Amino acid sequence: xxxxxxxxxxxKDPTTRPQLLKDLYDATFNIGFVYIKNHSVPNFTIxxxxxxxxxxxxxxxxxxxxxSKINSPHFVGYNGYAEExxxxxxxxxxxxxxxxxxDVVYDENAQVEGGSGRDFSKLYWRLxxxxxWPDEGxxxxxxRVFEEYHDALSKLSFEFVELVEEAFGIPKxxxxxxxxxxxxxxxxxxxxxxxxxxxxxxLLKYPATSNPSGQGVGPHKDxxxxxxxxxxxxxxxxxxVLTKTNxxxxxxxxxxxxVVNFGNAFEAATEGAVxxxxxxxxxxxxRDRYSIPFFMGLPLDLRVSDxxxxxxxxxxxxxxxxxxxSKGEEVEISKFLDGRWDxxxxxxxxxxxxxxxxxxxxxxxDEACIHVKSLPQRxxxxxxxxxxxxxxxxxxxxxxxxxxxxxLFDLAILHSTKRx
Length: 420
Ligand SMILES: [Fe+2]
Hints:
Blueprint: E1 5-7, H1 17-30, E2 33-37, H2 43-57, H3 61-66, E3 77-79, E4 85-86, E5 89-90, E6 94-99, H4 142-168, H5 176-179, E7 200-206, E8 215-220, E9 227-232, E10 239-242, E11 248-250, E12 258-262, H6 264-269, E13 279-282, E14 289-295, H7 304-308, H8 313-317, H9 327-330, H10 344-355, H11 357-363, H12 365-373, H13 377-383, H14 390-393, H15 402-416
The structure holds fe (ii) ion.
Fe (ii) ion (FE2) binds at residues 220, 222, 279.
């Protein structure tokens, strides 16, 4: 099996558009990964950003430390080499996380907005906020070039989602509400509006290693958004995808293309009919490998049930037909959603805290404790850590262990959304 290459220029001609949509539909259900070529992103926009990557990763340690993710409650910023693990094994890469530049909306004392019912005191709103930018003097022009790339990818992602809607037989602009404020939607009566979501972009470096079985990043599904648009820089291979027959196939770089795949939220929205396909990256042995995944964001207060309501029965029916044999591998991949986490912001917050415990401990423990402390003792015990949560806030207490933190956050999120 090979990953299909879709020629997006076929969308412009009414005589070739149906074939493109059929190929997209088939690829979505068969493998969940596609290459796209002849897309709308100009070459110079890509080249301008990729030219910066070696310089960005060569910044002195003092600059990298200023940009460290530990300095951001929004989980943006720098992570050093092999600081993250997947399935218990070190990922041999370093990375900068950026996002759509947005103001902070989280306010622990917020009152519920009358019309929208939006409550900015919920913990997950703290995920939203501005970037940590490198000093302009260190990398002149970087921010402008990055923002041009961000805007071009944002445009491409909207264009691609329109194709997905048409391919799936979903009414045009159904998903537009999730990305564009209500008043800008042209097709009329909408029951709910969302804040425009925050896209995320990783700038990744996989340094060449002498270990031929090194893990660049371990097997995972994408959790950061709706769809992922990956640009693979240069010619160094490494990306592999798990097929339904439980075999890994390579997805090498092809000049001028992006690789597109579906995230966990899409899988949840289609009740598993469209898979968030498992993939991994082998650490390169000859040359450094760089890549740039763009994760198309979704509103934090969007509920999986809201999206499911948009999915036609024809898509849900596919669920029974796509059961594959790869579950053996998949059982180890952490589940994005369970029954308690209907809201995407809650799932996102848990995901970020799991992968960056130090950031969670620094920026979220106190807030979580405030929610949990106001619970009666009986309810605290329902999902609470073995230690009393108040002890986490005490100066001399040892910090919460990862499992304790997740339990604490689970309870805090449930409480902040009035579900305990
Ligand atoms: Fe990924």
